[in-house]
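Quick illustration, no need to memorize.
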Amino acid sequence: MSVDFAAFGNDLYTGKRSVPVIARRRRFYAVSIALMLLAGLALAVQQLNLGLEFRGGSEFRVATSSAPSDYERIARDAVGAAEDESGVNVTLVGNGTVRVQTERLSDAESQDVRGDLARAFGVPEQDVSGTFIGPSWGASVSEQALRALVIFLIAVALVLSIYFRNWKMALSALITLVHDLVITIGVYALSGFEVSPATMIGFLTVLGYSLYDTVVVFDKVRENTTEAFANGRMTYGQAANLAVNQTMVRSINTTVIGLLPILAVLVVGALFLGPGVLLDLSLVLFVGIFIGAYSSIFIATPLLVSLRSKDPRVIELEKKATRHQARVAKDARASEPVPGEDGAAPVPAGSVPGAAADREEGATLTGRAVHQYARSGPRNQPKRPPKSKR
């Protein structure tokens, strides 16, 4: 059975169909809390697999025409004489370059390892490069990244508070950013992928994308809730839920379009290129963009509604919208055809079909007062002027 996504999106925008995101927000909260707890547990137990740039050490690259299938065993056997096998990390970069990472070695040990690797893989010693990377470089990158993150969050809080004129919107956006960051880091801890400087750059990029999607949804929330405060026909939660539905298809489309090329790069990097900057960056972007799309739809706006549920204006709007919707329901019931002269029962005495007037306010849904005519006797009509006698 084919699905007309254009018609589905149009129905969501007009309100003909509705996904009850706000009404079921506790379920989404539970899912997010479970994911964050799992991420925290992974960080506590397994921790992150920090790259050589953060922990420091020696790296060797063996350039071969075609790496053998058992390249990892060959490299570990060659390095084992100078370094404990448990401290060796062997990966394939591209089709023919074998990367071997060890703990810090002295110059003499590095020279011995280069010779051992060259003999093990049957290549000249000049085809084996050796470098040393100190941990201070990775520490400097981490420090700069954390500083940039703090400045970014402060700037986001100020800009959103000024733009939306509501600090609770800024708070909701910041909590959503932390949510995305924690889950993304947890995925890295669970999967065991290496955290490199490119990963740090990817984290900051993911925060920007998540914030962009959240701001788009919040802008529609502000538009709908402003109208709700003006006419009193919808509660704050209903107006916010309509905003989420109106932007849902757009968020899904932009997320899919953004993930497809990243997925292609991720597959190519994993199958053909091996570990490197491209693979590290594409992985964090893929995970972060997916989590960011989820949070912008199912976490940010429901969290905003929860934070504003105790506001006096929101409470007053809910009472006003409830009265309005009750009048609409009453008017709809009164306008339904009932048995009368054409084979249906007579209209109950004293009722006015189709006039769902609010007795307290004396107004209909349109705000105009209803003049109820007497059930007997002619309607009041202007008197004709008396004929003049000639």
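The beta strands are 49-50, 57-63, 89-93, 97-102, 128-133, 194-195.
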